[in-house]
Amino acid sequence: MLSVGDQVRWDERTWTVAVLEGARGRLVDAGGAVAAVSLPHLFADPHFEVCGAPRPQVPPFALLDALPDPVREQALSWERHVREVETGIPDPVGGTPRPRYDPAVHTLAQREAAKAEELTASGLPTSVATVRRMRARYRDQGVWGLVDQRTTRPRSAVGRADPRVVDAVVAVLEEQRDRSTGTLTRLRDQVRWFLEDQHGPGAVGVPPQSTFNRLVHALADGQGMLGTAAQRRWHASRPAPPFVPTVALRPGEMVMMDSTPLDVVAVLADGVTGRPELTLAVDVATRSICAAVLRPPGTSAVDAAVLLAEMVAPMRMRPGWDAALALQRSVVPYERLLSLDERLEGAAARPVIVPETVIVDQGRVFVSSSFLAACGSLGVSLQPAPPANGPAKGHVERTFKSVNQQFCQYVVGYTGSNATERGKGVEDEARWTLAQLQELFDEWLVAGWHARKHSSLRHPLLPHLELSPIQMWAALVGVTGYVPVPLAPDNHIELLPVRWQVINDYGIRFDYRTYDGKALNGYRRRRSGSSARGERWEVHYNPYEPERIWVRLPDGFVEVPWIHATQVNMPFTDYTWRHIRKTVARTADRDAHELALARALDALLKRAGAREGTRRERTVAARASATASVAVGGPTAGTAEESSPPAFVADVGESGQLDRDPEEPYDDLDGFDEGEDGNDTSSGDVRRYTSRLLNPYAEADQWL
């Protein structure tokens, strides 16, 4: 209650209540300032309080339902007794007071004494002081004050365990987060040793094994301290709550990229099997898989960079695909988009999304200079996620699980997501080549992923309606607009890894390969004008096709072939070349050694193709053959058979693992030979002949 003369605290000042008139009052502070306020407004202010008086508390009525029934009934019974003592009527519905509790006849002290006698006579010994104490509790806390507080005391999860033992268990559990998983018996021994080191031998006893096990589970369950080593590491990598959801409001605003081994065994070539690696780009706003690439294990910067180019290009319809998979048959405003981008003619129903920000992990592929340059050339911002933090790119991590459940488990050669799910003879079941598996996956993306309803995609005006990725893209593109980004030939070359070389009399040499052509004649032993790069020239190369390089000259890029390309009649990659370098010893000068390497490479590929080589040689040739078969130049632009930008693959060893990191720096023992004399052994002009994996001129013709 508030009365005239009370001191109150409001608006960071102390006031005296001067006047109370109905629902209004006048307050006067120490300086004589007067304030007329509404009492409801005054009482609603969270900082208002009456000085020297406790603020009334609302009883926690919801907690009454959590009490045991006998405890709750006892509190409600006391409420009736207290109400009868104070008002003479036990129930709020009204009635006639009993003779001993009539306020008109008996004083409050007499009624308290009568209630104490009544409760004692009923078998519940009660004194007058107890009745008065219950009245005071009811006045301050309501029904909750009448509850037996012994039943509301919080119970410790560890019971009466020694706090020193509890601290030791927690310390040891934290210490072994990154260790291999052990038993609780080992943990008990470690706790005993910890206590001996901290308090001395025998000073603190360790509970018996069964009691110790209960104590450990009470402390560790739900805290990520038990379980497998992978589970403990995952829990430790989680960010501290509260969690902030990742929100993107327009296509391309936030795209997440990552790679993972696919749970399917593929036939690479010549009977060699292995699990390919899947690299995805997922748009957060639409949950679209903007681009996907399959290749043998070992993601390289080329794979990641070409994935960027594939995102901004429409996916072409393939022979044999159902007409319902065409973009023209989807919910997007096709005619309007076609007037803006002619590349959409004959395209499949996969969103075309230009990324603004790409979120990647700290893998060396995604933070390499090649990938950074590729992002810069397309105007894409790169945002690395914190190390070992899966939730930072949770959308793409969850997409991998969905791909496993919705696609992989239906494919012959499915391995399961872990060793316990792996079937017998999975390698013998494998029948799909890498190129065929890529084709199946691309078709599933259009027919399955982008057409399937997603629980996290909701229309802003219809929040109860689930949308598919293609429907969400159609809804957002009408608001944010659509700007096509066709790539020119030079843009594709820019996406390839770069190195800086000197143009000598004999051409350009690195990694025991010499590239030369007549187009370089005017630039031999000349400075490039790039002082930051030591006056060397910009050279782009493709580690999956070492037969040619691209050199940036003042008039643009020119393609320069390897001088010994005619010596090798089968496709090979940088991995194959490095294998030859390890097996062929250098016994002559540099030029003769390079020619010997080329001839040895051709002989190896020939023997492996005829099944005459060693197992290692057949494996090397199989990787090169699988690489070349993944993406071959498609038909002419504008046809239904036109393929999407090619997928790049890397070579792997016999075990199915990458024998060399594609991002490993080249051995420059024979590079930068500015002081040596050499002859121009090129056979003619620089040619623009078709690349097995990336023909930038043909790709540009498709997209322009």
Automatic annotation (TrEMBL):
Domain (Integrase catalytic): residue spans on this chain: 247-477
Instruction: Provide a GO biological process annotation.
Output: DNA integration
**Molecular-function GO terms, alphabetical:** nucleic acid binding
Q: Write out the biased-composition intervals (Acidic residues).
A: 661-679
Bias-annotated ranges (Low complexity) = 621-633
Entry protein name: Transposase
Q: Where is this region: Disordered?
A: 612-692
